[in-house]
Structures are given as structure tokens and as C-alpha cells.
Amino acid sequence: MPTTAPTAHALGDVTASDSTLRRFLHGLPGVDAVGLEARAASLGTRSIKTTAKAYAIDLAISMVDLTTLEGADTPGKVRALGAKAVRPDPTDRTSPSTAAVCVYPDMVAVAKEAVAGSSVKVASVATAFPAGRAALSVKLADVHDAVAAGADEIDMVIDRGAFLAGNYMKVYDEIVAVKEASGAARLKVIFETGELSTYDNIRRASWLGMLAGADFIKTSTGKVAVNATPANTLLMLEAVRDFRAQTGIQVGVKPAGGIRTSKDAVKFLVIVNETAGEDWLDNHWFRFGASSLLNDLLMQRQKLATGRYSGPDYVTVD
Questions:
Q1: What percentage of the chain's residues is helix, strand, coil (to nearest 5)?
Q2: 98 conformational bin, left if phi > 0, alpha if psi -120 to 50, beta if neither
Q3: With contact defined as beta carbons under 8 Å apart, do 218 and 289 qualify?
Q4: DSSP-assigned states of every residue in 169-204
Q5: Which residues are catalytic?
Q6: What would the pLDDT profile of 259-291 be if each residue is shown by its tens digit?
Q7: Is residue 248 packed enough to be buried (19+ CB in 10 Å), middle (13-18) or exposed (0-12)?
Q8: Omega into 130 within 30° of 0, i.e. cis?
Q9: Could you write out the DSSP letters of every residue in 100-135?
């Protein structure tokens, strides 16, 4: 489907004012919903052979942001999650570590200690997650706390109310401010696609986030009914592909929420490969926001290695 947007030369001025930003975002091509969903469904039917499946499962494990974002989170739970992220399968040292552990800001220091000496990053949600309903000063304080505690990555939520009201410059300015407050930490911008209502809005939010300096664009918080889907992830992958073609800047994509099985993860990896290309098949550029996905990946990995499924006590219940 056509995804052509204004040329790279035009991007320098599109954020000069609210009117120019609005004109740019509403000048993006409309999304053919039927075509998008058909393309996503078609890619989801692709099958891969055993050796490729083993590679895909290990790749997916390495892309997981192992997540706990509950009011009942304790230091002990976060330490256990960190240990699992570093060594997902204690019985098999060949299993890759996950990409990151994602926690609330007050648990960042605990998570950093738990993954010390490993490749696992610590991500922290911020900006009044998950609703994003707070003053900018409060959101920035949230970010500063997480960064001060050692967060390697910040997952922020946009003000969906402002976006849906058409106040794009407010959303843009908040992302820019959070990016600055994040310092060296990579910034993931969460759209909550289930609340944006239309594919056109998801495309506009994708471009808005990238223009504002997002290192990743992320579908969801995992706290609403509709989270990551093959179709909305495909649409966001088209956006990052087109953005790099026009600016030379590569941006990552993170589908989050609702991805629970190895079969689902492989479908998403096929979509990545066929839409954005091999450059995104790396945990620096693609992540899964998940809590239960890792266990199924480990079970399927064991099945490929031994030819049988392990019992339910093979993996920990997080």
C-alpha cells in the first residue's frame, strides 16, 4: 500500500508551528484498512522450517522486555525477574538473555543490581504511566527519578487526550522535553494504539513521535483491551521504514501487550522482515513488551531440543 510522505527536505520545517505540523500529519496518505489487515493476515500464514524456527525463537527471546508493572511489585519479585532475564533457562546456558527488564521508576535500582554484569538493560515506564494524565513537571520528575536510579531506557506515554483533540504540538513538545530529560537513556514513545481509534491516527502518531526524537515507537501499555496487533505493528514498521528512507534515521518498534505465544512472536518477526527488513531483526531495533511470552518461547525451545514438551513446572510463574 502507498506510504509515501513529504520529502526529507520538507521535514525540517514541519514542526515550526502547530499549523505546519498539523498540515504535515494530515497530509500523510490515508491508510487502506482492508489492505493493511489483509497484508498482515497474509504474512501471518508464513511457515518456517525447524532450523529457522529455532533461530527465530532465540531471536525472539533476545527481544523480550521482561515486564512487571503491578502495584504489588516487590523488590524480591523484581530481583527474581532480573535473574530470569539474565538466564531465562537455568538448565540451559545456551539460551540467550532477554533484551531488558521493564519496571516502575522506584524499582529501577533493584533491577539494575539484579542484572549487573549482564547485557540486560533496565527500562522504566514514566510520564504518569499508564494514563499520562499529569502536568509536564510531574512527568519530567518521573523521568529524572528513573534516570537517576540508572535506567537505560525510558518508556513514556503520550497524552492521548491532547492527540485526539488535535493538539499535536503539545504532544510533540512533551516528547521533546522527555527526550531531553532522558539524557543517554533511549526513549520509547507509547501511543496506546487501542485508544487512537483509527489507523490514520496510528500513522500520524508514529510520524509525530519520530519527528520529536523517539528512539522507539511502541504500540501499547498493555493496560487496555486492545494492545499490539499484527496490523498496527505492520503500520508502524512501514512508518519507521519510510522515515529512515527520508531522513537516514533508524527508529525501533516495540509491540506490547497480548503477544503470548511463540507462534505469535514468529508471526511478528516475519512481519518485521518483510516490511522493514533485516536491519530491524535485532533487539536494538525491535522488542516485545511481554510478561508471559518468554515462558512459551522457553517451552517451545525445549521441545525443539528434546522432541517433547516439558512439564508445567519447567518454567517459573512470574
A1: 50, 10, 40
A2: beta
A3: yes
A4: HHHHHHHHHHHHHHTTSEEEEE--HHHH-SHHHHHH
A5: 155, 218, 254
A6: 999 999 999 999 999 999 999 999 999 999 988
A7: exposed
A8: yes
A9: EEEE-GGGHHHHHHHTTTSS-EEEEEESSTTTT-S-
